[in-house]
Amino acid sequence: MAKWGEGDPRWIVEERPDATNVNNWHWTERNATPWSQEKIKELFKDVAVPSDVATITIDEVDKLEGEASASNRKGKLIFFYEWNLILKWSGVLNNGSGVKYDGKITIPNLSEENDVTDLDIQISVKEMDQDGQILKDIMHKHGKDVVRDRVANYLASLTQEFSKGMILPKKDGIKPDSVKILTSGFNKKIDMQPVVEEKKSVGLKIDTTTLKINLKFQCKAMEFYDAMTRVEMVTAFTRGAVKLEVFKGGKFEMFGGNITGIFDELVPGKKIVQQWRYKPWPVGHHSIVTISIDEKDDHTQVKVVQSGVPTAEAETTRNNWEMYYWQSMKRTFGFGAFIE
């Protein structure tokens, strides 16, 4: 049986100038938060808003909370960012009273979930009189475009800055051809279907069954474990916001709230046990998912046993695991040699 790096040429490990992390096999990550904070402050410092009837400036960043990172997995660059941003602006009407008005611009959720064109940009002014309203209207009409342009500049700069050194050349000096930068692709949330209101429990006994799933992944055991428990990796393959408390008794939520549960047991690289529920199930009903991870010579064997699945939902549940977990993980992280 083939060892790591043998066999299928897509899995052959080649030499690298730095002799480490060859072929970008492992998940690598760089903290982009400090750089992003400075860049955002720079981009929103003394920015003029075009107008024929007023002089308006976005003065500075008033509040900036959040984080950003850049990750690489087998030639794919994945960028995560989530910011709550408040900017100060000021303006005066050219033919008005000459009084300077102050206001704020609030962007409550600047993240990869939202395209720049769909940003929630809230405009406020401190003194809401007639002149203040005129200035606010100008900010709505022209100021938002300036903000979107600056945000787009930040995202382009983030991609450019943190692509450096993330994809290393092969021994012949040529970079891999299959480099993909995944940013806006994660803006499209995946909702496991069907999305319906939770069914009300009326005290009737639920007919349940047990699912058993056997899988093979082209990765190390800890890589698979990390993909199921590290928030940035779960965010990557689910392509949407997740909540993850990785400790016994910790809660998780993903796929827009369609999947929720609690961690019952966590053994790094070996085992994950969850109380797991799908939103359409009767209120309060959880299944028990046991994921056993076993690293072999040339792959990692994963066995999933899910007990307590409502019989009527068994086929849907199995298909959702396959499509939204396993296939997505293989495509995102390169865990499957035969996934195109």
Automatic annotation (TrEMBL):
Keywords: Stress response. InterPro entries: Aha1, AHSA1-like_N, ASHA1/2-like_C, START-like_dom_sf. Gene3D superfamilies: 3.30.530.20, Activator of Hsp90 ATPase Aha1, N-terminal domain. It holds the Pfam family Aha1_N. It comes from the Eukaryota. SMART domains: Aha1_N. Residues 29-164 form the Activator of Hsp90 ATPase AHSA1-like N-terminal domain. Belongs to the AHA1 family. PANTHER family: HEAT SHOCK PROTEIN 90 HSP90 CO-CHAPERONE AHA-1 (PTHR13009), LD43819P (PTHR13009:SF22). This is Activator of 90 kDa heat shock protein ATPase homolog 1. It comes from Nicrophorus vespilloides (Boreal carrion beetle). The gene is LOC108562298.
